[in-house]
């Protein structure tokens, strides 16, 4: 009696311990899921933060003439200004940084570091910023100086020394742009390593193009040849001229009309297109700028709007089209547009100093505000787009030669990310119409990021759909036969064998699918169609033949051998399908099914397509669905089967009306577990498909899934970048996707269990 009491106490202790461990494990799993959820939100949140502009520094400076341009280094520590007299001054913006001046760059005053005279005894008529850091100085006499302010850093005795320099990429001598040496009213400039190009409008009404071609590459003392051309242009005046960075096009604005000229021909400059915005009666064009890369033209109007134009392909060739419009001001004209160097963002300024920050691709209105009381004399965007520098005149001075140099910090890390850009169609530069595109990287700095999650979300559903289409019928029918019809002895061998398939690494399945299965399907495509006919037909014919065999023959064959008889029959059916494939291909498809599908039907065909993925992923999913469904069917109480048969029902009626209904919660759970496995699969999709993010249900086209996209692009993404955080957003979408599916599946399973538990 005491021993029984002691055993009961030990058993109770074990039960309590197991209960606490299981409860603790469940809480741990739930807590882990919550932590994953919160961490994903923590990484994703910054991409939806609003842009901010905060003041950093305010320096009072003096200039003997109006300031034409300003600039700042990458670290926002040194700034420069250039005035109408051709003088460039450098200013230190951070007093806590050590500056050691050289002989030619001695510190003057508290912040003034150096003064250089760029255009001696000449007054500047225009100053053009070109490229990343080139400044073109046009004098009133029509001469041109090209300069480039640079900043170099060196380290000595643990101190950083920053020294500003001015270099002359085309030499210190003045350049003559017009062969006739006439005064230049308006001028645009662009340069690369091999040539420099000028497009200008002269005082006598000529539009000219001048190209400087270097013998090798441009250097300080490089020799170059000047090629002068005159452009056929009839307007009496020119307001703006812009040249694209690749020097293929020039935009010349005269009034409310922008003429687009092609510059890629060495011998002639042809009119390519005319841009005429649809303006109200009293509106005029007030400003014009090129976005990063030069593919898009921004046009500001007196009505406070900025429109974006770029080339698209039409039946009549490539033409410029107005794609989107930004309402930058409700009551004032757009006096100036400043664009970032490497992104598709731009700033607008009105006469009263009202400013706006916008991003073209996402059509985002990022920030509005007024940093100073009036329009600044000039403004510049920091090279890293993380700051602004403004020059504002101080009106109270007697000679109006005192200015405020103001530096602002800009927090705008992810302007390209909005819900619209992620989930709706976006009209990207050069595309004929809005579309869902995922293209996160390119070989150029001015690339327009395309971060639509729709194609990869669609690819996830497509891959899962075709995998389940292949796996569910095979897995469920195999589970039904194994649990209900198969002999116990054979079941003990078949079930563990199929379950062992689940241990096969998916990378092996992906490898075999991509390198072995995909070429076979491409070369024997008719055989795949024949297999869909031959395999079911051969199975039915074998079953019919077995049914009609005499009983004495059946008794001679062991019952466990009956299903095995199907194996040689199915092998023969498959061999017949592959043997007939070349004959059908030659007779019906002209000898090449792939060319027939592509050329005659008009369906694109990729070797690694959804059919390959469906078969390969189906084999990975089949063991999961089979094992759970077979357990659910086999676990149906025997008295239900016996009672149904005793009441006169056949085995098939018992199976359909009793067994499957009772086991339906387990079967449904098996299917949903298989779906979850298919949705989250990575390696098979990565290796067995073309990994192309397209929206196409075609079985002959590939796809890119959320999981595969994360696996491919996460190693190459910059930590903290928009690309990096959007990949985490893709993981969050996958997490939510599977969570919703599993939650819905659990509700349905509980409903089915409650409905059929009384049977």
CATH class designation of the domain at 455-519 and 606-756? Mainly Alpha
The total of beta strands comes to 31
Structural class: alpha+beta
Which second-level CATH architecture of the domain at 455-519 and 606-756 applies?
Orthogonal Bundle
The CATH H-level superfamily of the domain at 455-519 and 606-756 is MetI-like
**Unreliable parts:** 96-109
CATH topology of the domain at 455-519 and 606-756: MetI-like fold
Helix content: 25-40%
> Biggest sheet, in brief?
5 strands, antiparallel
Rg computed from alpha carbons, rounded to a whole number of angstroms: 37 Å
Specify the overall morphology. elongated
Alpha-carbon distance between the termini? 41 Å
Number of helices: 16
Percentage of residues in DSSP E strands: 25-35%
Mean pLDDT, to the nearest integer, reads 85
Explain what the structure shows.
It is a single chain. It is elongated and about 120 Å long. With 759 residues, it is an alpha+beta fold. Helices cover 38% and strands 27% of the residues. It has 16 helices and 31 strands. Among the domains are: 100 residues; 123 residues, Methylamine Dehydrogenase, Chain H, CATH 2.130.10.10; 216 residues, MetI-like fold, CATH 1.10.3720. Helix 4 crosses helix 10 and helix 13 packs antiparallel against helix 16. The two termini are 41 Å apart. The longest helix has 43 residues. The strands form eight sheets. Strands 6, 7, 8, 9 and 10 form a five-stranded antiparallel sheet that branches. A four-stranded antiparallel sheet has the order 1-29-28-27, with no helix packed on it.
